[in-house]
């Protein structure tokens, strides 16, 4: 009788262990994919334009920043593309799809900096949008 129970419990234990290990490996893979996406050519060129704004940000008022982005279609598309990436990150963190500690270590400060830099423009998208970005900043700070 004891041997029969072992024949049931042992496969269940092995399956549970495999499921946990598989889930951990999947989270690591999702983390690497999301980090790699940051260097995607489209996102990379978009970030180039956001870096140019970083250089000028100290001399731009919030209103001037918003006007400059709205007047430059390429810059506007760049900021939107970067913010779409941030939404993917937020979704992945909230739904426990990635290893947050590793992601935060690599890109957390960068994401926080960009959100802070473009906050006046992001505010034009409404309160719900800003709430999501603020949540991401909080998640990236730990």
Could you characterize the architecture of this molecule?
This is DUF4760 domain-containing protein. InterPro entries: DUF4760. It holds the Pfam family DUF4760. It is a single chain. With 142 residues, the protein is an all-alpha fold. The protein has one domain (30-141). 85% of the residues lie in helices and 0% in strands. The chain is built from 7 helices and no strands. The longest helix is centred in the N-terminal third of the chain and has 36 residues, at 2-37. It is elongated. The N and C termini lie far apart (51 Å).
Task: Give keywords.
single chain, 142 residues, mainly alpha, 7 helices, DUF4760 domain-containing protein, DUF4760
**Helix share, percent:** over 70%
Strand content: under 5%
The total domain count is: 1
Based on CA inertia axes, which overall geometry fits? elongated
Protein name: DUF4760 domain-containing protein
Task: Give the arrangement of secondary structure elements.
Blueprint: H1 2-37, H2 41-56, H3 62-71, H4 73-94, H5 100-117, H6 119-122, H7 127-141
Organism: Escherichia coli
Pfam family, one: DUF4760
InterPro entries: DUF4760
């Amino acid at each position: 009788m004891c041997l029969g129970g072992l024949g049931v419990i042992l496969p269940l234990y092995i399956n549970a262990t495999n499921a946990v290990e598989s889930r951990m490996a999947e989270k690591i893979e999702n983390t690497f994919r999301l980090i790699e996406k940051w260097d995607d050519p489209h996102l990379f060129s978009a970030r180039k334009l956001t870096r140019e704004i970083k250089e000028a940000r100290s001399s731009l008022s919030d209103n001037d920043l918003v006007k400059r982005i709205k007047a430059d279609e390429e810059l506007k598309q760049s900021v939107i593309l970067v913010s779409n990436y941030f939404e993917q990150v937020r979704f992945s963190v909230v739904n426990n799809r990635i290893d947050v500690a590793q992601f935060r270590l690599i890109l957390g400060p960068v994401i926080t900096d960009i959100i802070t830099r473009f906050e006046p423009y992001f505010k034009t998208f409404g309160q719900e949008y800003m709430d999501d970005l603020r949540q991401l900043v909080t998640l990236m700070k730990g």
